[in-house]
Structures are given as C-alpha cells and as structure tokens.
Amino acid sequence: MELAIIGIIVVVVVVFIALTIKIVPQQRVGVVERLGKFNRLLTPGLNILIPVIDQVRVYHDLRIQQANVPPQTVITKDNVQVQIDTIIFYQVVGPEEATYGISDYVYGVRNISTATMRQIIGKLELDETLSGREKISSDIRLALDEATEKWGVRIERVEVIDIKPPLDIQEAMDKQMKAERSKRAIVLEAEAAKQDMILRAEGDKQSKILKAEGDKEARIRQAEGLGQAQELEALGQAKAIEAVAQAEKMRIALIASAGLDERVLAYQSFEALTEISKGPANKVFLPTSAVETLGSIGAIAEVFKASKDGK
C-alpha cells in the first residue's frame, strides 16, 4: 500500500515537473496561453510554466521553410493550358500572429499562390509565360507578401520550378526550335563566309597599300641618293675648277714674277709653230695673229743677233 502511494506521488511529481519545466530548442518558439488566453512566448532555453493554468498552444519553427505548391493547370492569354510547379520559401516572423491570424498559414500561402498564379498567367501569352519565370515568381511573391504580412509570415522567395505546355505544343515548339537552329546555323555560315571574304579583301588591300608605300619609299630614297650624289659631284667639280683656276692664277703670277715679257712669249710661239710645221701636213695655215707673231720673229732674230754682236 505504501509503495503504491509512493509510486503515485512519484508519478505526480514527474507529471508536475513535466508540466512546469519546458525546454525550447534554438530557432523555435512556443505560444503560451493562460486559461485559454495568450500570455507569452517561450524562448529557446529553460522556461517555467504554471501547471494546468499555463498551456503551450503551439510551437513554431523560426527557420526558413519551404512549401511545395501542387502542380497547377492554368490557361494563358492565348488559350493554352500549361502546368506549373512552384515552390515557396517562407519564415515565421510573428509567432503570435501566425497562431491567431490564420488557422493554417501554409495552406493559406498555397491557396494565395495558386490564385495569384492563375491571374498572372491569364495575362500572358504562352511565349511570355515560358520566358517570364522570373517575372511570374516576383509577382507571386509580392502578392503573398501583402497577404501574409498580417499572418506573421514573411515570404522569402518563390520559384517556378517547371512550366509544361501540352504535348502537341511541345512537339510544335521542338520543330520550331530545330528550324530556328537550322536557320541560325545557315545565317552563321553565311556571316562567316562574308567575314572571310571581307577579311581576305582587307588583307589584300593592306598588302597592296604596304607594297605601294614600300615602292614609293624606295623611289624617294633612290632620288634622294641620286640628288646627293649629283650635288657631291658638282661640289667636287666646282672645287676642281677652283683648284685649276687657283693653279693657273699662281702660274700666271709666277710667270709675271719671273719677268717674262712679250718678246719671250713671241719666241715661245715661234717654237710652237716650228713644232707644228714638222707634222705630216705639207701646208700650215697660220692665223692672222700668228702672222703678226711671225712678223715679230724678225725683230726677235734681230734681238738675238744684236745679242750675239754685243758679245
């Protein structure tokens, strides 16, 4: 009997402790109600409650969580049915609002996401839908932010995972894509051929220009060399003439300084005529000046004769 009483006491103590002490893990928070009314939040660590009076209504995970939205079939502006898969990342930032603002905020987020997605896709054509994932995600996130602000939930990110058009549309798109790729390949080949021709023409043009410039430079150099050579040759001739003139001037000066007069010159002229007469010609034509010179020969002979007589 005593053991039973002790056992009951132990159980009561354990239950009392379990109802009194609450240990909350990190990044979790508990909503405490006292007599059915919100009292406070249980923060991470050790918390003390009043048994029976205080009760933990719910625990919230404060980490970023994700919620998959089931694939939705929506109709685009051009009446094409597409199936869209999305995933939503959210975080509880207001545990009290998340508890009392809505019964199930995850369910609410999914429903709002689905309704918003239908509205957005209904305004877009198929091509815009397939190429506008980022815009669709952004619009859904903005719509969810407005709705979930009073729920104590913040939408971190919305991702459109996949957009699936009907099979016949996919086949048509595949054919169109192949045709576009073939067209692009043909255009690229034509562009490559065009670039090749342009580059070759440019290269040939540059080659001819460089060759013409080289020939021009060579001719200029040759002309400059020829001009310099002629200039140097003229300078050499001028110097030679100047030297000859100087030598002649010096010779005349020497003759003059030697005291040679007209009679000596006349005698030398006579000697020169004597040498000329020894040539093969049997006739010698004498210029008037020579005759005058010969006329003076007699005077010269008289000079020499006078000189001999004077001995």
Mean pLDDT over the full residue set: 84
How many extended strands?
A: 8
Evaluate the radius of gyration.
64 Å
Cα(first) to Cα(last) distance is 202 Å
Instruction: Specify the structural class.
Output: alpha+beta
Per DSSP, the total helix count is 8
| Beta fraction | 15-25%
Please describe the biggest sheet, giving its number of strands, its sense, and whether it closes into a barrel.
3 strands, antiparallel
Describe this protein's structure.
With 311 residues, this protein is an alpha+beta fold. Helices cover 62% and strands 21% of the residues. It has eight helices and eight strands; from the N terminus they run H-E-E-E-E-E-E-E-H-H-H-H-E-H-H-H. It has helices at 2-20, 95-100, 105-122, 126-131, 133-148, 167-257, 262-277, 288-309, and strands spanning 21-24, 28-34, 37-42, 45-48, 54-61, 65-75, 81-92, 153-164. The strands form three sheets. A three-stranded antiparallel sheet has the order 3-2-5. Strands 6-7-8 form a three-stranded antiparallel sheet. Strands 1-4 form a two-stranded antiparallel ribbon. The longest helix has 91 residues, at 167-257. The protein is elongated, with a radius of gyration of 64 Å. 11% of the residues are buried. The model has no long low-confidence stretch (mean pLDDT 84).
